[in-house]
Amino acid sequence: MVNLRTRKTLIFNPLHLSGFGVKLTVQDLAHMSVLRVTNGREDERQSTSYAFRPRRFPFSGIIVEGKSGYVSLQAFHWLSKFRIPLFIMDYKGNLLSSLLPRSPSKPELREAQFNAAHSPERKFKIARALVQAKVARSIQVLDYLSELHDLKKTVRTVTEQSERLSSARTVRDVRLIEAQVATRYWYALDSMLPKHLCFDGRHRYSANASDPVNASLNYGYGVLKGECLRHVNSAGLESTIGFLHDSRVSRERINHALAHDLMEPFRWLIDLTVMEMFTSNQLDLKDFYFTGDDYTYRFEHDAKLRFIHQLIDHFQKPVQINGEGHSWSMVIQQKTRALGEFLLEPKRELDFIEPSPLLERPIEVA
């Protein structure tokens, strides 16, 4: 058994469990009420166990990826009591289910959210603010990468395309500009990657990744989605009501439209992590394999742990807001709450662009 009581609690520091035989139970209920967590087995290595006392859980939540194992009813009660979210993912990064703490009762906020989603003017304003932030980060990532690759022409083109957002008038206009920017963005990232990875951008079939880069992006986006959903829940917002995404976009997004909205300004965290790892050979073709008969890539065990560790590091990188240090996970939390404030007071400013990340070190290519 590994005792993690002294581990520092961070706002984004999920406990990741995967493999066969994942178990969450509560033991010694009368005296200690210990949450016993057993990690699954993915190879010949023995599984690892953890024990946590009440109110001493040092993680921001639990991510379970696997098909074999169980969670006892008492463990569900323990997690709910201490407001610990539990996310069930598959190896592709799809969020299958979640157990979230009780959301605060804010009927006036949800009514305002519902009304805004049915107001073309307000829906458009929120959608444009989200895409403006996403595009700004895309330009910044490309500019950062251009220190090592000749991407200046792409940066100019994407910047010119992004300027059309100021003249957009509908959500459809916003989505069209977003798609045009994304095409150039992914083409530029593709040009940086080794050809044997067979990456050719993001497409409708990317969810069933036939290359390791898309497999990594999908998994990272799944983690980001869970984090956004956690903050939507804690803010008292309704996850099914979105502004940029809605039930007409994709059946899978019906239940988490707002989480998908809030992912947009922060997808760059996943993109940059993936690019760093593949361009520095921290990840390569050998770290993935096909499984079953669906011809979809999945991580080797050790490679997945490396990827998750670096992803958490990116979420925890410091960013300055009003002279105070924050993590990017805290920024997601603050922007989610700011959206709620805007819904209640439409005259407030809505900005997802600031703060801007400080990307100083160029990616080292091996």
Written description of the protein model:
Strand 5 and strand 6 form a beta hairpin. The protein contains ten helices and ten strands. The chain has a six-stranded mixed beta sheet, with helices on both faces. A two-stranded antiparallel ribbon has the order 7-8. Helix 3 packs parallel to helix 5 (171-192), helix 6 runs antiparallel to helix 8 and helix 8 packs across helix 9 (301-315). It has two domains: 15-84, no CATH class; 107-344, CRISPR-associated endonuclease Cas1, C-terminal domain (Four Helix Bundle (Hemerythrin (Met), subunit A)), CATH 1.20.120. The protein has helices at 73-81, 107-117, 120-145, 152-162, 171-192, 212-235, 257-263, 267-279, 301-315, 328-344; strands at residues 15-27, 34-38, 49-52, 62-71, 86-89, 95-99, 288-291, 296-299, 318-321, 324-327. Helix content is 42%, strand content 16%. It has 366 residues and is an alpha+beta fold.
